[in-house]
Amino acid sequence: MTKRFSTQxxxxxxxxxxxxxxxxxxxxxxxxxxxxxxxEIRRFMQRKEAEAPKEREEYGRYGNPTQQAVERKIAALxxxxxxxxFATGMSAITTALLTLLSEGDHxxxxxxxxxxxxxxxxxxLPRWGVEASLAPIDDVDAxxxxxxxxxRVIFSETxxxxxxxxxxxxxxxxxxxxxxxxxxxxxxxxTPINLRPLEHGLDLVIHSATKYLGGHNDLxxxxxxxAADLLDEIENxxxxxxxxxxxxxxxxxxxxxxxxxxxxxxxxxxGVRVAQFLADHPxxxxxxxxxxxxxxxxxxxxxxxTGFGGVVSFEVRGDLARTGRFIDRLQLPYVGPTLGGxxxxxxxxxxxxxxDPEERRASGLADNLxxxxxxxxxxxxxxxxxxxxxxxx
Length: 393
Ligand SMILES: Cc1ncc(COP(=O)(O)O)c(C=O)c1O
Description:
Aspartate Aminotransferase, domain 1, globular, binds pyridoxal-5'-phosphate
């Protein structure tokens, strides 16, 4: 019987009977695994060469039981055959792309992806003879027109940061399937609670598990989910490139995942309440939230997602300094560059780009843009805090 999300978040991937009868999955804090004698090594190698499922571990860069419990849990939540865990989201993205792309191949990166992902495509891949081109997120015809005979991968993100643009996944999959292209979607902002990209025909789902999946701002991790044949290739590359995460972070992620459904539902509720409050406030110029009918991708989001997420971006009436004053007068959220945890975090994104006005303009981020990544605090308190900060400007 297929279990529902909250049940899977608690139970999926974990052995029912654990060592010592412990209720929680142990942290197997070791870098390597020893063998009793050479006969045990022979048995291990025979299974490996026959590509049979492994019965034991060999060395920490190739796997860890705590990490594998997390991988099984995330695979269950996304509805994928396999998941691989990485040290960071960037490590998951770069290892997957390096596995799939070779010299002479072409990658299409859809606009709005995380800036470091774009940097990897623009600055690093060409060094190895891989060309990358950018396609707009809201024009499937332009995406189809960007396909070349050498295109191997289409990479997109949904919703994007900070404008929360939503990719129409069924249409993206249709473009790719017509040309035998692998599709990858960074679904960090959506989480499997709000979106299950594999059900829309995508091949690989990526997460910065540092964000919602971990949910407590206390770990870094990344994940790739999809069909076993692709994941087997990526696993081999992970063993070579070495971006595997540690057992302690895997345990923290396992624990964080148990409350994913509860946390994301609350963050969805907070997102809708805060977006509506800001949309009606005279000191706010514009709100970007896919749950609002004014958002350009509202219809796609409504069709594709089961919740609109916990990030709300908005423009305060005024300039860089006035927006900064607003941020400084907020009492509830922390100020910083991440999202997805239980604590609300607000940031003026342009300031993280550059102190130089020209560079900020070139980045396309408005000086008065605020990204508020909502936590699980009570919506009434979040709104009261926004109200007092706006009133004081
Ligand atoms: C959408 C998205 N993808 C990937 C990353 C990179 O993840 P990590 O910081 O875990 O390497 C981030 C980080 O901000 C992100 O927001």
